[in-house]
Amino acid sequence: MLDGNENDRTMLVTGHARIADDVWHITLRDPDGAELPAWEAGAHIDIVLDADTVRQYSLCSSPADRHAYEIAVLREAEGRGGSRRICDELAVGSSVTIRGPRNHFPLAHAKHYLFIAGGIGVTPLLPMIEAAHAEGAEWSLVYGGHTRSAMAFAASLVAQYGEHVELLPRDEVATSLSRRLPELLEHPQGGMLVYVCGPESLLTAAEEHMTHWAKGALHLERFSPKAVEGENHGFDVVLQRTGRTLYVPPERSIVEVVQDAGVVVLTSCKDGVCGTCETIVLEGEIDHRDSVFNAEERETAESMMVCVSRCRGDRLVLDL
Ligand code: FES
């Protein structure tokens, strides 16, 4: 079930066009033409198709445009069905519910950026590139995909930014993105930030190839949950503001137990990827199992995603 109704916003679909083999570009506006909440590069919105079908998509337009949110959706024929509904059923003139924007992939300031995109992972990088370019930063984008016709925005990126952009369509080039990655990341460069978005295999490879880089150099965003290993055990959660203590058994999540007790926690994906359920932790040792925080953030995080993360000990005190 979905609980965040007060954050929901009805939007009008004003653009719905296929822009690559399986990619649709969708433009959403307020039905009355009102200005939309501001956002920064890296932000995403939730598309709420129904209570159990909520999908996250990066905003790929310019934050300067306060009257439209644009996303690009890969139609996953073998997926769970959300992207098929968005690509096949949403039409210009129809309405759709969204939530957000939220940003767990912000662009930190740097003089030098390397952007790496795999397939539809290029979308959050578009406003980042716009910002980096506008600031006069040095930057390059290496963008891989199956074929050129499957790579959304490839032609416009090359047209706009020329040799900043290296395209690696797998059917045309001898060196695919996965093969190029070790060479790209072999030599750490001081002051350079690396932003990566794409399939899990690309993200994992980037993590593996950047272990010798400075902490904080790698920034990535996951839209599918990272596999997390670990046994579950039961523990207590103390809801500080509500004044209740609840037991979370091994087979249930914190959010299930807390919501069953009638306490409101906003949720969306329930997979640890969207960040909606982030909750402040006042005491206790968190067992982070989400795909939102990176390794560094986990070390210092004073909050947790209560849909998937758990407790290392036997008690957590939450600001609920
Ligand atoms: Fe999405 Fe918890 S509901 S991270």
Explain this structure.
- By secondary structure, the chain is of the alpha/beta class.
- Helices cover 18% and strands 32% of the residues.
- It has 7 helices and 18 strands.
- It has helices at residues 82-89, 125-134, 154-161, 177-184, 200-209, 254-260, 295-300; strands at residues 8-20, 23-29, 44-50, 53-58, 69-74, 95-102, 112-118, 138-145, 165-169, 192-197, 218-221, 235-239, 244-248, 278-283, 286-287, 303-305, 310-311, 315-318.
- The chain has a 6-stranded antiparallel sheet with strand order 4-3-6-1-2-5, covered by helices on one side.
- A hairpin with a 4-residue loop joins strand 12 (235-239) and strand 13.
- The model has no long low-confidence stretch (mean pLDDT 93).
- It binds FE2/S2 (inorganic) cluster (FES).
- FE2/S2 (inorganic) cluster is lined by residues 267-270, 272-277, 290, 305, 307.
Helix fraction by DSSP (H/I, runs of at least 4):
10-25%
Kindly report the spatial arrangement of strands forming the biggest sheet: 4-3-6-1-2-5
Cα separation of the termini: 19 Å
Tell me the number of strands.
Answer: 18
Average pLDDT for all residues:
93
- Helix/strand order, N-terminal first: EEEEEHEEHEHEHEHEEEHEEHEEE
C-alpha-based Rg, rounded: 20 Å
Question: How does the overall form come out from the CA principal axes?
Answer: globular
Q: Ions, cofactors, ligands: which are bound?
A: FE2/S2 (inorganic) cluster
Low-confidence blocks of residues: none
Strand content: 25-35%
Largest sheet: 6 strands, antiparallel
Give the oligomeric state: single chain
